């Protein structure tokens, strides 16, 4: 039996899911952002301005889709003697399944200080004034509220946010996590896949993201996702994102991915290594091929056996995920595939 791990039908659409425009602290207008990304072969941009949700459906056409989104945050209150530069913070992007949304449930008016942004606030937006704190219960409640009201929630740039395991242990309900944020990379605080695997080992079903978090042209075109879907239409793309019909990347492309008789087949752009990561230490890979390769068949039967014999008795949901690394060190990351998705 063959399981297609990325949909067989459809087209890959290149997307940047994290962008700031002149509506808040970005340097480019929403229109300029569209033009720059289109020039580089992107079809989708999520406009994630800080603390305000402004749809840009007027920019959507046959070749481009604007996703309605916002980036919400909460800072750890620090004593007056401490500097803002060491303040921990949670940042989340909220992606609206309904493209017309301007209201999201954790909107806070006081987080919108700039006059040019405040000028865009509407009566409807101001009816919500939600406050939440920098503690995991309060944060999880805010995320649950967003999920209930039709938003996919991503957990952004933990490294830039000066966060570690103590901050994301027991984080619940996030749909995605940034394994790569180009702005953070440029500012010398590169994210990693460690929090991603930590959340997976906590039993969370969470998907990897690579984004730009672009504020200016300088931090564009570094991290992206390739979404496979049958049409460049809002609902179709949001459903594909929610299901995990995409991979994240800083360069390499994955063309085909399927599992057949416990053998994983990968076809991709030239790679120096194709690696499997699981909840345990078992990491089969093409390490040692010592040549660029564009295909691999990797037998996962031992990985499956360990998952069934050992991990099934723990709180973990046994999974495997795939990383394709190219000769420049750039990586593509698939979502985790959980063994219980496949028939025994
Ligand atoms: Zn952020
Ligand atoms: Zn941002």
Give structural notes:
The protein is an alpha+beta fold. It has two domains: 7-249, TIM Barrel; 254-341, Immunoglobulin-like (Sandwich). It has nine helices and 17 strands. It has helices at 30-39, 115-118, 123-126, 136-148, 165-168, 182-186, 194-201, 234-243, 301-309; strands spanning 2-4, 11-19, 44-47, 65-75, 89-96, 151-155, 176-181, 207-211, 224-229, 246-249, 254-260, 263-271, 273-278, 293-299, 319-325, 331-334, 337-338. The strands form two sheets. Strands 2, 3, 4, 5, 6, 7, 8, 9, 10, 13, 15, 16 and 17 form a 13-stranded mixed β-sheet that branches. α1 links the parallel β2 (11-19) and β3 (44-47). The radius of gyration is 20 Å and the shape is globular. The model has no long low-confidence stretch (mean pLDDT 95). Bound molecules: zinc ion (2 copies).
TL;DR of this structure?
The chain is α+β, with helices and mostly antiparallel strands and 344 residues long. Helices cover 19% and strands 30% of the residues.
């Amino acid at each position: 039996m063959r399981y297609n791990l990325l949909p067989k039908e459809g087209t890959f659409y290149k997307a940047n899911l994290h962008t700031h425009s002149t509506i808040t602290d970005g340097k480019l207008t929403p229109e300029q952002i569209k033009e720059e990304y289109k020039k580089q072969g992107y079809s989708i941009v999520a406009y994630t301005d800080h603390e305000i949700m402004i749809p840009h459906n007027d920019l959507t056409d046959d070749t481009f889709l604007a996703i309605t989104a916002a980036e919400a945050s909460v800072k750890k209150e620090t004593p007056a003697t401490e500097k803002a530069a060491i303040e921990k913070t949670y940042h989340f992007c909220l992606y609206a399944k309904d493209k017309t949304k301007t209201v999201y449930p954790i909107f806070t008016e006081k987080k919108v200080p700039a006059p040019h942004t405040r000028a865009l606030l509407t009566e409807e937006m101001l009816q919500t004034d939600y406050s939440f704190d920098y503690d995991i219960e309060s944060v999880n409640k805010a995320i649950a509220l967003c999920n209930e009201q039709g938003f996919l929630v991503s957990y952004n740039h933990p490294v830039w946010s000066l966060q570690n395991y103590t901050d994301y242990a027991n984080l619940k309900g996030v749909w995605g996590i940034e394994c790569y944020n180009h702005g953070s990379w440029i500012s010398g605080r590169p994210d990693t896949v460690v929090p991603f695997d930590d959340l997976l080992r906590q039993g969370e079903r969470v998907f990897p993201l690579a984004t730009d978090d672009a504020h200016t042209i300088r931090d564009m075109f570094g991290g992206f996702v390739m979404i496979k879907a049958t049409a460049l239409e809002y609902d179709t793309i949001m459903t594909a994102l929610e299901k995990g019909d995409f991979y994240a990347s800083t360069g390499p492309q994955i063309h085909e991915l399927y599992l057949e008789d416990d053998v994983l087949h990968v076809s991709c752009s030239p790679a120096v290594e194709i690696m499997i990561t699981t909840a345990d230490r078992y990491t089969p890979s093409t390490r040692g091929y010592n040549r660029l390769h564009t295909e691999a068949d990797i037998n996962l039967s031992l990985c499956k056996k360990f998952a069934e014999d050992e991990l099934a008795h723990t709180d973990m949901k046994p999974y495997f995920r795939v990383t394709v690394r190219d000769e420049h060190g750039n990586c593509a990351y698939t979502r985790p595939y959980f063994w219980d998705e496949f028939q025994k």
